[in-house]
Amino acid sequence: LAKCEAVQGGTSFIESLPEVKNRSYNRELGKDRHNIELWLKFVAHQDEMFLSLEGGDNSKKTRAERLTSRQLFERKMSILDKAISLNYSCVRLKIERLKIGMHLWDEDKWNVELREVEFKHVNDPEMWQGVLDVLESDTRRFNFVAQVCD
């Protein structure tokens, strides 16, 4: 039954392995570099890659073999930088980059990046919606007492 599903359009076990999916994303992005949805899926897929590398018996892995969450964010940032270089006017990619940047950059760097996105896309409602969503979810900058008392 599993073979029939794989033949009829289902996903086989091998096709579902994170490394195989990673190669598939790379191949598809090589064909269609302007597919924003595919870039965003590829960035999201890095979480699955991270979990597969972290899975198993971590006690047997050397320190160099373990992937840290910082490395995960850096990998995602690298993918987004490449995607933005090929799709410079895409606001969605830049908003996703700001979300990842919250985990990598200090506050000053993040504010500079935010101002740059705001400046370049000031008339784009998608940018403003994305920025508001990012700010709303940023627990580092949100202070309930300051919001209520001001």
From TrEMBL:
Matching InterPro entries: NRDE-2 (IPR013633)
Intracellular or extracellular location(s): Nucleus
Nucleus recorded as keyword: yes
UniProt entry tagged with the keyword Nuclease: no
Entry GO CC: catalytic step 2 spliceosome
Single biological process term from Gene Ontology: negative regulation of RNA catabolic process
Ranges in a coiled coil: none
Superkingdom as given in the UniProt entry: Eukaryota
Keywords from the named record: Nucleus
Pfam families the record matches: NRDE-2
Family stated for the protein in its record: Belongs to the NRDE2 family.
UniProt protein name: RanBD1 domain-containing protein
